[in-house]
TrEMBL record:
This is Helicase ATP-binding domain-containing protein. GO terms for cellular component: nucleus. SUPFAM superfamilies: P-loop containing nucleoside triphosphate hydrolases. Signal peptide: none annotated. Residues 38-60 are annotated as: Disordered. The lineage of its organism: unclassified sequences, metagenomes, organismal metagenomes.
Length: 517
């Protein structure tokens, strides 16, 4: 074991890190059934004691098969740990399932550190690959390729809807990188993952619990554990393993509403969600509130999105506003005034411009494409030349180019760019235009910069709207996956959707900590 790992480190050119070695020992013991319910951690060496802080570790016991969770904090090198495990415990067929953005990264890392060329079962190339005829190999594929087809197959006994060759192979090890993608058991992706056959299954994710307890239970079923208290979990932080990197400083910017009509409409929308009417002293708010009640009589859930969009960039709701103009609820002049302004984006632009000459690369995380485009245009208009955008509209080639270049500002759609990217070399400032429902997504986003290799202090700026005169929203102790408002009086005085989402985030963080620890 020690000899194999040392050869791996020497061949790869990596520095020996005790905690990574401890992690490989822990994984290999687990795969060979060595944990046996005795508790986590590999013992001996830095990070060993914390290695399985929450992982009972059933190994080959009655709770499930071999494998478990690799939930180390982002930036500790979970990929290096897994490849080390491959080399120290050779098996015939290993399957790695991951988001498409990570395929190239894993392929290059495996080749660099082992000299092995993994089989890419992805895109059109997969048609030329005979999975059932492969010998010793590592196969890399995306989550889309393990999902079941929606159309149920008809055929002989034992057929399951949508199975393909990847489900018919008897794998010897399966690794689900960013495995939290499998948390929803009602998807064809989840059902497809259940059909994959292997005695060893790993969930690799720094944020396995994204919304609530159900996430953890569903992932446990994927890797074959029914006794949730015996699932092996390797969970360590940078601090626990003694890694010293520059500090991260978080700043919360409270933004005031600058435009009266922008605030009026937001007050009406928030008022209905909060169970009341509209804000006080709003001229035509009675008509707006009445119209909103009728328009959303079946439920207020769609108004969550509208309230969030109003907190970010009112132009996002221009279709919705067009209906109000048509029904003579607001005038064309009021419509034009509302979509002309964005108090939030004004504040973000001002903050970025204030820091533009400090020499730090800046990442701005957004949610909507038109929001991305507006920020990019305004920054360029204000003299920042190297501004690039990264979202679902970029092809694979363009994405590689963008990520390799040093730019002044990189604007990312958070769902596209929060995972797997290593951006610490060029960037050390992060701006979140608005809070995201899932706190783990933000944690993943911050980890793109705050990780091993970062040389500067990382500054994180978050922006929230406030100052609406509406009945406060409330958050219950149990947050549902739909993020619905409850009747609980917990967390009073949340008077904007930004504020409400941040409280939901904190509830979800508490749930995740309770489960993992």
């Amino acid at each position: 074991m020690n000899s194999s790992y040392n050869k791996y480190i020497a061949h790869s050119g990596l520095d020996f890190k005790q905690y990574q070695y401890d992690g490989v020992v822990w994984c290999v013991d687990n795969e060979k059934g060595g944990l046996g319910g005795s508790g986590g951690g590999s013992g001996g060496g830095s990070g060993g004691g914390s290695g399985g802080g929450s992982g009972g570790g059933s190994g080959g016991g009655s709770g499930g098969g071999s494998g478990g969770f690799i939930a180390d904090e982002m930036g500790l090198g979970k990929t290096i740990t897994m490849i080390g495990t491959f080399l120290c415990n050779l098996v015939k067929r290993t399957l790695i399932v991951l988001p498409p953005v990570l395929i190239d990264q894993w392929y290059k890392q495996i080749y660099k550190t082992t000299g092995h060329k993994a089989v890419l079962y992805y895109g059109q190339k997969k048609k030329k690959i005979d999975l059932l005829g492969l010998g010793f190999c590592i196969v890399i594929t995306s989550y889309a390729h393990i999902a079941l087809n929606k159309k149920k197959k008809k055929g002989g006994e034992g057929d399951v809807e949508g199975l393909n060759d990847i489900h018919r192979v008897q794998w010897d090890r399966i690794v689900f990188d960013e495995g939290h993608h499998l948390r929803n058991r009602n998807t064809y992706l989840y059902k497809g993952a259940l059909q994959l056959k292997s005695p060893i299954k790993w969930i690799v994710s720094g944020t396995p619990i994204q919304n609530g307890k159900a996430d953890f239970y569903n992932l446990c079923r994927i890797i074959g554990y029914s006794d949730f208290k015996k699932v092996p979990i390797l969970k360590r932080t940078k601090k626990e393993v003694g890694i010293l990197i520059p500090d991260m400083t978080a700043n919360l910017e409270s933004v005031s509403w600058k435009n009266e009509n922008e605030m009026k409409l937001s007050s009406c929308i928030h008022g209905i969600i909060g169970g009341g009417g509209s804000g006080s002293g709003v001229g035509s708010s009675t008509n707006i509130t009445y119209w909103l009640h009728n328009r959303f009589s079946s439920g207020v859930l769609p108004l969550y999105l509208r309230a969030r969009q109003m907190c970010i960039y009112p132009k996002l709701v221009k279709g919705f506003l067009g209906e109000m103009v048509r029904d003579k609820i607001i005038t064309r002049e009021e419509y034009a005034d509302i979509v002309k302004y964005s108090s939030k984006l004004d504040a973000v632009i001002e903050a970025v411009l204030k820091n533009k000459d400090n020499g730090n690369g800046k990442i701005i995380f957004c949610s909507f494409r038109s929001e991305i485009d507006d920020i990019a245009a305004r920054l360029r208009d204000n003299g920042i030349e190297r501004v690039v955008t990264f979202d679902g509209r970029n092809g694979a080639g363009a994405r590689k180019t963008i990520l390799c270049e040093r730019n002044d500002v990189l604007i990312l759609q958070i769902q596209t760019g929060c995972e797997g990217l290593n951006l610490q070399e060029h960037y050390s400032e992060i701006y979140f235009v608005s809070p995201f429902w899932n706190p783990a997504v933000e944690d993943q986003a911050v980890a793109r910069c705050h990780r091993i290799g970062q040389k500067k202090e990382v500054m994180v700026y978050r922006f929230e709207m406030g100052g609406l005169e509406v009945e406060g929203l409330s958050v219950s102790n149990e947050v549902s996956d739909s993020n619905e408002v409850s009747d609980s009086n917990e967390a009073e005085g949340l008077n904007s959707m930004d504020n409400y989402i941040m409280c939901v985030q904190e509830r979800k963080r508490i749930i995740a900590r309770e489960i993992i620890s």
